[in-house]
């Protein structure tokens, strides 16, 4: 798979929004970042509240920064609050260790970015990200 292009990132956000509509989830925001945490593309559905983009971005940025799905960080944050408070301060508001973002990997398993969502529960947010990657990348995530 090539690098994370705008075309690929747009396919991922399109597929995530479509998955949210199929499941009749609340209006969502979906953000794709590259491996350095820079926004490649984002979508905010009509009716999604204004904070949703920031939360989706924070989840995606956190996943890329820590090289893990954000689900893996929830327990770690509870077990080590001092360290995670330092990470949140260092991230200047972008570090959000909450379920709802997963890594995007190339065919060799190298991390090329992350996708994060916000609007539903953390599980719903994560589900649409995973569904999108399965559809667009044939399950490579």
UniProtKB/TrEMBL annotation:
Pfam families: HbpS-like
Taxonomic source organism: Robbsia andropogonis
Protein name listed in UniProt: GlcG protein
Source organism phylogeny: Bacteria, Pseudomonadati, Pseudomonadota, Betaproteobacteria, Burkholderiales
Annotated InterPro entries: GlcG_carb_metab_protein (IPR052517), PduO/GlcC-like (IPR005624), PduO/GlcC-like_sf (IPR038084)
């Amino acid at each position: 798979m090539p690098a994370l292009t705008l075309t690929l990132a747009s396919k991922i956000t399109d597929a995530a929004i479509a998955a949210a509509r199929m499941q009749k989830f609340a209006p969502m925001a979906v953000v794709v970042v590259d491996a350095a945490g820079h926004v490649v593309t984002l979508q905010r559905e009509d009716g999604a509240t204004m904070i949703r983009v920031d939360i989706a971005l924070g989840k995606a940025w956190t996943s890329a920064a820590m090289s893990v799905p954000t689900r893996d960080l929830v327990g770690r944050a509870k077990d080590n609050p001092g360290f995670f408070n330092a990470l949140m301060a260092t991230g200047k508001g972008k570090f959000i260790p909450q379920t709802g973002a997963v890594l995007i990997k190339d065919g060799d398993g190298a991390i090329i970015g992350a996708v994060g969502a916000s609007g539903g529960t953390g599980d719903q947010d994560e589900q649409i990200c995973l569904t999108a990657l399965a559809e667009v990348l044939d399950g490579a995530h």
